[in-house]
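Researcher: We plan to redesign the surface later, but first we want a full-length starting point. Tokens attached.
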């Protein structure tokens, strides 16, 4: 493969990872909201502490959130914030 093909594959993988992170965050947010929690507070608690108890197990949210590293979550949140500012 040439450098251009490698770059295109890397960009494609990064975009897929971003999409996956966004979908997981949305699902977890909705599950927290449906269970009556403040989703922002719970997600911040999880990102800062790494304690999965901040995330409800409702709709498999706790399992979903653990598919991503906390730094990936923070990166996606920051990217989304800056792109929509």
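Model: Full-length starting sequence:
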């Amino acid at each position: 493969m040439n450098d251009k093909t490698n770059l295109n594959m890397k960009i494609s993988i990064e975009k897929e990872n971003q999409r996956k992170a966004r979908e997981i965050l949305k699902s977890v947010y909705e599950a927290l909201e449906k269970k009556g929690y403040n989703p922002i507070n719970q997600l911040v608690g999880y990102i800062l502490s790494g304690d999965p108890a901040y995330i409800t197990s409702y709709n498999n949210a706790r399992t979903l959130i653990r598919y991503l590293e906390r730094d990936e979550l923070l990166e996606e949140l920051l990217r989304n914030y800056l792109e929509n500012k």
